UniProtKB/TrEMBL annotation:
GO terms for molecular function: DNA-binding transcription factor activity. Residues 3-58 form the HTH deoR-type domain. It comes from the Bacteria. Keywords: Transcription, Transcription regulation. PANTHER family: HTH-TYPE TRANSCRIPTIONAL REPRESSOR YCNK. This is DeoR family transcriptional regulator. It holds the Pfam family HTH_DeoR.
Amino acid sequence: MLPVERRKQIVTWLNQEGALSISEISKRLNVSEMTVYRDIKPLLEEKKIIKTSGGISLTPITNDFLNACTYCLKESNNRHPVQIILNDLRVEQLCCPHCGLLRYKDIEKDVSQIICRDFLSHSTVSARMAYYLMDADFNLSCCQPQVLTFESLKHAEQFQKGFGGNIRRFQEAVEEIQKRMNGEHDCTCHK
């Protein structure tokens, strides 16, 4: 097997398994560990993989260098971002709760944790425990239909009194945003 073929195989295994030790790769390819180190050198230089304490893994997907939302690809400079932590510990950055809920629905089985920010206090909140205000008469200039997150029901209700809208729990908000994006309700997502 040529070095380029071995590199492709290593990346395939990493996509399937997340991380591998050098000795495991050596056994699987039936080559020396020194050969494995030579094979992975270009992958390290191209930043496709990273060294870990146990061997190597794929470079985590973070959009910091792109500063873009994983879902809509907008520049992610919103004050109300969402982070999805996957079971393989990769982290996805999303610009707003709208995109966070849609992305969650797409990859639900792969999600370990989803985190958002409280609209008023900006404190970090488990998205599964948050309250979601939809249809409020308040423009954040982000994706539509707009979704605001609150840590407490009391704060969501107080904001609702001033700006209207409907309060939903996590699963209800996921289902509602999905319905709207599928055209079951009026929606204008600026994707």
